[in-house]
Amino acid sequence: MSTPLTPVHHARSLLFVPATRPERFAKALDSAADCIIIDLEDAVGADGKDSARAQLARCLPLLTSEQRSRTAVRVNAVGTPWHEPDIALLRGWAKQGVTVMLPKSEDASALRGVAEQLGAEAHLVALIESLAGLDSADALASDPQVVRLAFGHLDFQLDLGMRASPDEPELALARNALVAASRRARLPAPIDGVTTRTDDIERLMADTRRARAFGFGGKLCIHPAQVVGVNEAMGYSQDEQTWAQRVIEEAAKHGGAAFSLDGRMVDLPVIRAAETIVASMQK
């Protein structure tokens, strides 16, 4: 991974906020959520797209640099009437730390075009929501400006005509594929989809523990009440935190060269994993 680590890289909880509710932006950023996702897509009806974009344009200048680094914007998909205006708005802000989430990511060349429009400093999260997206997961993950993959499991089910049961064993293949694609591209662990029940903590925790077991490192949230549980289930044990701190300390002594710690070889991917854990501890 060639880009510097940002909060989006290691976020456990990513809380959606409708772009039409700017009064919620600061509250969401002040919550326990690692990052927020301001939504110009599904949370905004067709007749409200222009107004939502205008509200976002007024609010982005009010965010501090630290807040921008914890903010992503889900734009409308490539090919929709609203995509190009969304990208035009974010072209400058992507250079100032705002991450762009691209829904319906299916075509690596289309994603590359978005990255080029946003500029070389832009970070992208590729949201995979279809079989075509899953088939292209390796190509999408390999783009140098993609910092994470995310799984839109509800739209994925619609695309395939699936009716997954509550524990979603039917989606195991897709989840495995996204984790594997992220690993092959040396990206941080991907982000799992939402839990639609905002009043069912047991369902939320089961979904989050399942995501963690598959190798996901984050989860999309649709309500502030979900954030603390997600952070807890996606977090790291005291032993893992202690190990990560030791790795970082030893890596500094070895000047970037591989070394052995407790009988295990430590190279750049292991150091990156340790950096992710240490970064999460600083939240």
TrEMBL record:
Entry binding sites for substrate: R74, E129
Pfam families in the record: HpcH_HpaI
Swiss-Prot/TrEMBL GO biological process terms: oxaloacetate metabolic process
Molecular-function GO term, any one: lyase activity
Domain HpcH/HpaI aldolase/citrate lyase: start-end pairs: 12-224
Listed InterPro entries: Aldolase/citrate-lyase_domain, Citrate_lyase_beta/mcl1/mcl2, Pyrv/PenolPyrv_kinase-like_dom, Pyrv_kinase-like_dom_sf
Domain of life: Bacteria
Keywords: Lyase, Magnesium, Metal-binding
Cofactor: Mg(2+)
Binding sites annotated in the UniProt record for Mg(2+): E129, D155
Protein name (Swiss-Prot/TrEMBL): CoA ester lyase
Provenance organism: Paraburkholderia dipogonis
